[in-house]
């Protein structure tokens, strides 16, 4: 199976669930993909981070973004690292602004 197709399919499935407001469904879908698609772990952690950020579960978002960064660094994918760092910094900023 084509990797690009698989990643596109994951993104589309998650996007559709989020669009419907089904955050739990998106979480279940990504968790299942994480268990059965080990070669996509970095990407799936990134998607989980984005989901949790949108869902305002910022601690979980930060955790998954950190895991995604580890994978992207191991893969020497500097462009993806930069993209993940941007999302991570936004999540951290949002988390700081919520604290009294």
- Helices and strands, in N-to-C order? HHHHH
Largest sheet descriptor: none
Helix count from the secondary structure assignment: 5
Uncertain segments: none
* Integer average pLDDT: 92
In helices, the fraction of residues equals: over 70%
Beta-strand residue percentage? under 5%
Radius of gyration: 13 Å
Shape type: globular
C-alpha termini separation = 49 Å
Q: Classify the secondary structure makeup into a structural class.
A: mainly alpha
Q: How many β strands by DSSP?
A: 0
Quick rundown:
With 100 residues, the protein is mainly α.
Supply the key terms.
100 residues, mainly alpha, 83% helix
What does this structure look like?
Helices cover 83% and strands 0% of the residues. The longest helix has 21 residues. The protein has 5 helices and no strands. With 100 residues, it is mostly helical. Helix 1 runs parallel beside helix 3 and helix 2 runs antiparallel to helix 3.
What is the topological layout?
Layout: H1 3-19, H2 23-36, H3 41-54, H4 58-74, H5 78-98
Helix pairs in contact: 1-2, 1-3, 2-3, 3-4, 3-5, 4-5
